[in-house]
Amino acid sequence: MPAAPAPILLLAALAVAVCQTVVVAALPLFGQDLGVSATTATWLLTAFMLASAVTTPIAGRLGDLYGHRRVLIAGLAALAAGSLLAAASDHAGWFAGLLAGRALQGVSGGVLPAAFGLARRLAPADRLDGLVAALSAMFGVGGALGMVVAGPIVAVTGTPALFWLGLALAVIPLFGALLLPAGPLPSTVDHRRLDVLGAALLSAALVALLLGISQGRAWGWASAATLGTFVACLVAVAAFVAVERRTAVPVVDLRLLRLPALAATNIATVVISVGMFAAVTIIPQYAQTPTRAGYGFGDGPAETGLLMAPTALLMVVTAPLAARLSRRTSGRATFQLGAVLAAVGLGMLGFVHSAPWQFYVAGAILGAAYGFAFASVGTLVVGAVEHHQTGAASGINTILRTIGGALGAQLAVVVLANSATAPSPLPTEAGYTTAFLASAGIAALAFLAALAIPGTMWRVTVPRRVTTS
Questions:
Q1: Which of 82, 89, 95, 332 could form a disulfide with 105 if both were Cys (CB 3.0 to 4.6 A apart)?
Q2: CA-CA distance, 16 to 72, in Å (whole number)?
Q3: Nearest of 383, 382, 380, 374 to residue 402 by alpha carbon
C-alpha cells in the first residue's frame, strides 16, 4: 500500500535541516577536542553547505528528468552514509574524516527539491500550498532544532552522538520513501547528456569563494593567495555561465533565472540567508565565551542549546501561520514580515547582549522571522514556475539559500576574528556588536529586495495537481 506522502516528505526535509546545523552549538568544542582553530572548525558547517549547494541543482534537474522519488532515496542514503562516516571519524579523533562525512551528509541537500517535486505530484490540490509552506519551514525549523538539541546531547554523550542522531533521522524517512509511488517518467529524457562539466565549474567557483573569505585574514586580504582565489572564482563563474548556455541539460537552467518572479524571490532569499546564518553562527560563540573576557556567559553546549530554544519554538509556532497569512495578504508580505522581525531581533542584540534573557527575547523574535520568511519562499518559488520546472526552480532557490548561509557563517567568523587583538585570541565585544548590527542591516536589505517580487506573486494560487514525475 502506498505511504502517505506528507509525513515522509516533512521528515526527510527535517532530517536534512537538523543535520545541517547540529554542529553549530558544538563548534568551539570540536575545535578544542580535535586541535583545530575556530575558523577551521567552522568548515564542519561550511562543508555541509558547500556540498549541498553543489548537489541541490543537480538533484533538482535529475528529479525533473528521472523522477523525484529516486533522488529523494539517494539523498537520504547519502545522509545516512555521511552520518556513519562522521560518527566513526569523530570517535577516532580524525578531523579530515569528520569533514568528509559532513560533506557527504551535505549531498542530502538534493532531498529538498525532490520533496517539492513529489509534493506537487502527490499532494491533493487543496492541500498543496500548505504542504509546500511546511516543507519550506522545515529548513528553518529543523535548523533551529538542530542547534537546540545538540547541546544536551553533547553534554551527556559527547559529540559523536550528533552524527548517530543524523543516521537515525535519515533511516526513518528513507524506509518511508521506498513505499512512495514511483510515478511515470518523462518520455523526452536524454540519457546521454549529464552536465558534469557544469557541476565541476560550479564546485570550483563555490570552493574558491568560500576559501577566499575564510582564509583572507590569515593570508592577508591583499595577498596573492587571497586575490588569486577570488579571481579563480570569477573565472569559474564566467566559464560556468558559458557552459550552461550551451548545454542541452544544464545543471542550472539559466533561463529560469530570467523569470521576474523567481529572480526577485531568489535575490531576497540570498540576502535573508546571509543575515540569519551569520546570526546563528555568532550566538553560540558569544554564549560560550569565558566570562573573563568581560562579556559572554561561559556556557557549555547544553546551556547554549537552551539559549536558542525560543528560536526553535517560535519557528514551529509561526511556520504553519505563514501559508494562512500568504493567502490573506501575499507571499511577499509574509516574507517581508519575516525580514522586519529579523532586523528587529538582530538589532536588539547589537545594542543589548549582556544578559541571557535578552537572547531569549531576541531569539523568539528571530524564530518568528525564520518561520515567516522561509515558509513563504517555497510557496513563492513553486507558484512562479510550471509544474515540470518545480525541481529545477526549487533547486536553484535552495542552492542560493545555502550559498547565502555559507557566506553568512564565514563572514561572521571573519568579522569576529578581525576584531581580536593580540595577545588574546578572543574577539572583542565590539566585534560582536558589529556582527549583530551588520546582520540586522542585511535583514533590512532583504525587506527591500522583496519589493522587486512582481505583483502577480502577491497572492499565492494553488497550482493544478499534475501526474508527471
A1: 82
A2: 11
A3: 374
Nearest to 14 by CA among 88, 93, 79: 79
Nearest CA to 351 out of 251, 430, 242, 420 is that of 430
Produce one character per residue of 75-100: b if its CB has 16 or more CB atoms within 10 Å, e if not.
bbbbbbbbbbbbbebbeeeebebbbb
> Mean per-residue pLDDT for 263-290?
87
**Residue-level pLDDT at 183:** 67
Produce one character per residue of 377-410: b if its CB has 16 or more CB atoms within 10 Å, e if not.
Answer: bbbbbbbbbebebbbbbbbbbbbbbbbbbbbbbb
Which among 281, 278, 262 has a CA at the least distance from the CA of 398?
A: 262
CA geometry: angle 336, 276, 173, nearest 5 deg? 95
**Segment 332-372, tens digit of pLDDT:** 899 999 999 999 999 999 999 999 999 999 999 998 998 88
CB atoms within 10 A of CB 245: 10
CA distances (Å), 305 to each of 118, 158, 316, in order?
Answer: 33, 14, 16
How many C-beta atoms surround the C-beta of residue 57 within 10 A?
Answer: 29
Please list, in sequence order, all residues whose beta carbon lies within 8 angstroms of the beta carbon of residue 402, skipping any fewer than 6 positions away.
49, 52, 53, 56, 109, 273
Residues ≥6 apart with Cβ < 8 Å to 181:
2, 69, 122
pLDDT tens digits for 146-204?
Answer: 877 887 888 888 899 999 999 999 999 999 999 888 766 555 545 546 677 887 898 78
Element (H, E) at 254: none
- Provide the 10 A C-beta neighbour count for residue 64: 27
Whole-Å CA distances, 322 to 115, 220, 290, 311: 19, 44, 39, 16
User: Angle of helix 68-92 relative to helix 43-66, nearest 10 degrees?
Assistant: 160
Residue 147 CA to residue 185 CA, distance in Å, equals 38
Grid cell of 380 as nine digits: 513563492
All three cell numbers of 56, joined, read: 541541490
Residue 367: what residue type? Answer: G
Quote the pTM value: 0.74
Give the C-alpha distances (Å, rounded to integers) separating 97 from 33, 34, 78, 80, 366: 14, 12, 15, 15, 34
CB-CB contact of 40 with 99 (8 Å):
no
Q: Cα separation of 254 and 13, whole Å? A: 26
